[in-house]
Design goal:
The chain has 5 helices and 7 strands; from the N terminus they run βαβαββααβββα. The protein is of the alpha/beta class and 165 residues long. Strand 6 and strand 7 form a beta hairpin.
Length: 165
């Protein structure tokens, strides 16, 4: 089990399907107010992970990259919403704040691709997912908790993925 320390968890994915499956496990644990920062180069698997997160969270909506619309909203049957923001085309934190990010966080989980582009507009406490493209079909995903709430989320996620705390 590749655990770096208590606040980090490394997961090596060998396929898009495996990335989606780990996303499903994480999505099943998300609640309103949770914020995920996704960081990695183009093609590293960020949107693929979000597909799994949305499915595991309970949405049957099709997940696509919101690069041109900036924010996609996925819904569950109970009316809850998951917000998917792509900050690739945003130039700074002010542009992100104009999107009313706090409203997203108050009304559902928020998953932000290219979070490093707007870090100043996002909460200090979050779950960071760093993607490293190792090979054509292999990704190294590093999950890092920032804050006590996210440490608890990471601990539950670790148990959900590996079956041990």
């Amino acid at each position: 089990m590749p655990i770096l320390d208590d606040s980090s968890l490394e997961f090596i994915s060998h396929s898009s399907d495996q990335t989606r499956r780990v996303g499903m496990r994480l999505g099943a644990l998300l609640n309103t107010g949770h914020v995920l920062h996704l960081v990695g180069e183009l093609g590293a698997g960020k949107t693929t992970l979000v597909q799994g997160i949305s499915s595991g969270w309970g949405s049957s909506d099709q997940v696509t990259s919101p690069s041109f619309v900036l924010v996609n909203i996925y819904r569950r049957a109970d009316g809850e919403r998951l917000y998917h923001l792509d900050a690739y085309r945003l130039n700074n934190a002010r542009e992100a704040q104009e999107l009313d990010i706090l409203n997203f966080i108050e009304n559902g989980p928020l998953v932000v691709e290219w979070a490093n582009n707007i870090r100043e507009a996002l909460p200090e406490n979050h779950l960071l997912v760093t993607f490293d493209l190792v090979a054509n079909d292999q990704r190294d995903l590093l999950f890092t908790a920032q804050g006590e709430q996210y440490q608890e989320l990471l601990d539950r996620f670790r148990t959900h993925v590996y079956g041990v705390a």
